[in-house]
Amino acid sequence: MADWLALARELDDWAEAGRRATLWWRDDDAEAPGPALDRLLSLADAMRLRPALAVVPAGAGPPLAEALAERFDVLTHGLAHRNLAPAGERKAEFGPHRPVAEMLADAASGRQRLRLLFGVRALPVFVPPWNRLAATLVPRLVDAGFAALSTLGPRPAAEAAPGLAQANCHVDPIDWRGGGSFAGEAAALTALLAHLRARRLGQVDAAEPTGVMSHHRVQDAATWSFLERLFAETRERDGAHWLSPRDVFSLAP
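^ thats the sequence. predicted structure below, dont judge the formating
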């Protein structure tokens, strides 16, 4: 059964093997300051963690840049986070139904807007809305100035394309199909343990940090409580180590 004791045992297994399970935190859909963002930043400070904030470029402005000060790095979360998929298909802004040149221009525009707002804190990392993007776009992202990609699930390789590193998220504690409430401790911990164990046993890329996703704008109290406990349970353990966004993508300070 996936519970907190099982997580502790898994991390002990890493420590006994002389290894540390690397983890990272990505929060999606940031656009403007507000109470939810304040809570996210307070939690990050309390736990001495630095999440990567996937920011929606079209919705971001100077107020968000000021709220994040100089402490937090941001990733390019599409352009406007609009569903442009045909009716009946899964939501996507950068899906296979759009011309590659058009999507590339949007990605470059989003990257440029965040660079103007955040300067060097805008890391060259692309996070497609809904974690979906056309395979034809992937090798072209380097042409838009990106050095890395982040989606969902174990990565097939360290590079999604030549010159484009990849590090994904593996734990989403929100039950989107169930209305956006907390998926429950068992479900969230099962996903976390599955990736940690698969890494330890060499069943997936052991070098890919285990990514935990959050959505500060919409998550409920139970989701917040889970994240708080997860960080508290892992922050000081010998078998775990939380990485900064720059460490995850091997980007210079």
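Residues 4-248 form a domain with the TIM Barrel fold (CATH 3.20.20.370).
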